[in-house]
Amino acid sequence: MSAISNIYLTHGAMLLCALACVVVALPEGGGRIVAAWRVPATAVLAGVAALLLVAYPTWGELKNPELWMFSIVAGVAGVARGFWMQLDVDHAWHLLRLTRAADCRVATFALAGLALVEVGLAFSGPADQPTMELGMTVIASFLIARAAAVMVRARQEPQSDLHDRPSPPVEE
Prior knowledge:
5 helices; 3 strands; elongated
């Protein structure tokens, strides 16, 4: 009974992180102005979701070279996407606007979908069935590398006024 509750606890935490990743990424994916913390938060939540799946029940799965080969390729794609996407930065208010950032929305929905499939497989069948490790790790690697590139680039971008400051009172 303890092993079954551990599986459900781990899968529940993984699903919760994946769904939180979607919620945090929704405004960014829509091209809206967001707080700068949302970009790395999306990546961290995706990474934790993938790590929970890969590391359970043992950390031995982290020694899988094929998994890391695909993750490195996804990371390179994420860095390229992060460096070549259009963004506006308000340094004073720590705000970002990523234009045409639907890739974040698509990636987080795919991550949550894979997490749902994984939970469904865990509840429905034997333990020797395939898992969604590869897909979730590739998506998380893409989002982590993309967020790192965006955050590095954001420090070098010129100031854009993204926050509507209240106008000073007019003296007559």
